Amino acid sequence: MTWLLTGGAGFIGCHVLRSLRSSGRNVVVFDDLSTGLSDRVPDDVPLVEGSVLDQALLEDTMRKYDVTGVIHLAAKKAVAESVAKPLWYYRENVGGMESVLAAMVSCNVGAIVYSSSAAVYGEPTISPVREDIPLDPISPYGETKLVGEWLTRDVAASNGISWTALRYFNVAGAGDPTLGDPSVANLIPIALRSVREGKNCHVYGSDYDTPDGTCLRDYIHVADLAEAHTAAATLLETEQIGLPINIGTGSGSSVIEVLQSIGRALDGEVAYEVVSRRPGDPPALVAAADQASRVLGWSAQYDLDDMTASAAAAAGLQKI
User: Fold this and answer.
1) Banded model confidence at residue 79, pLDDT cuts 50, 70, 90
2) Is 266 left (phi over 0), alpha (psi -120 to 50) or beta?
3) Which CATH number is 2-171+219-247 given?
4) Looking at the annotation, which residues are catalytic?
5) Whose C-alpha in 16, 118, 270, 272 is 20 to 30 A from the C-alpha of 3?
6) Helix (H/G/I), strand (E/B), else coil: 312
């Protein structure tokens, strides 16, 4: 099979690309390069530069390369930005999803792995969260991801498409030092940047109902996440399925624990200061990961210290 990988030049995308290629699959990358880097795509992998809103270009690409499956990563993904720019997020994420699915139907492409998010859960009252609990996103970003799941489910049902929506938890780390996370919104890159600049890292709230008062999140190594996509592709190539799957470790780490882990990676302490809570931050968001193990035969291999050490190496930081 040949897989079209939208967003394949981005942080997560380049790791998924490596995993797919290591499995022996043919891959075509489709990316607008708004955040992705073309040099993360090997010369022998076709790179089509364009927006997922461009259905005609998607169809041309699918036909030219005889695409048989899609892994759809391309999207805007910052929660705070989505609150400030909801129209943009709906246009890019929901409109992009519509274009991808329409192109698939037009070109008779029969499988899709959709990049969803734990943001679809909102502020769940149970932990860990299972895939079958009520969904109540609290940000425009989370809403667009949920609408994307609905679109995928409904279009797949009417067109015989096999699909899964991988609900990512907090992605971190790097597969090698050349593939670091350039995000300005994720905790570990923010903390590493604070260390580099000699500033205190902000901790948003310390009065949550958690063991140390700071938010709990399920951190998943990007290399593990990439392998989950390859496992999903393998399944969709042979079976007709349609369901969401959590991609996490099943255990939570607090903001303070993450900063302590970074300190271990740098053989020092990360300076921080507590500031006001941010709107839209649930106290705890940890995956129930048993469905990924049961359905995909996948489970996480890396722990938090692996993530922070690899992220620090990718950032080129020396010991504190």
Assistant:
1) confident
2) alpha
3) 3.40.50.720
4) 141
5) 118
6) helix
Q: What is the average pLDDT score of the chain?
A: 95
Cα 35 to Cα 183: distance, rounded to the nearest angstrom: 9
Amino acid identity for residue 23 in this structure: S
Four-way CATH pick for 173-217+250-287+301-314: 1.25.40.10, 3.90.1150.10, 3.40.50.150, 3.90.25.10 = 3.90.25.10
Give the span between the Cα atoms of 161 and 186, in whole angstroms.
Answer: 33
* 128: preceding bond cis by omega (within 30 degrees): yes
- Is residue 282's pLDDT more than 90? no
**Segment 107-146, tens digit of pLDDT:** 999 999 999 999 999 988 888 999 999 999 999 999 999 9
In 3D space, the residue among 303, 305, 286, 189 whose CA is nearest the CA of residue 247 turns out to be 286
Q: Is 61 within 8 Å of 70 (Cβ atoms)?
A: no
158-215, pLDDT tens digit by residue? 999 999 999 999 999 999 898 888 877 789 999 999 999 999 999 999 999 999 999 9
- Residues in CB range of 57: below 8 A, 6 or more apart: 48, 50, 51
What is the predicted pLDDT for the residue at 245?
98
Please say whether the dihedral angle defined by the alpha carbons of residues 152, 4, 248 and 270, taken in this order, is positive or negative. Answer: negative
Q: What does the pLDDT average to over 230-257?
A: 97
Domains 2-171+219-247 and 173-217+250-287+301-314 share a fold: no
Strand 216-217 and strand 253-254: the pairing is antiparallel
Beta strands of the chain (E only): which ranges?
2-6, 26-31, 47-49, 69-72, 111-117, 162-168, 170-172, 201-204, 216-217, 219-221, 242-247, 253-254, 272-275, 284-285
Q: Which DSSP letter does residue 292 get?
A: I
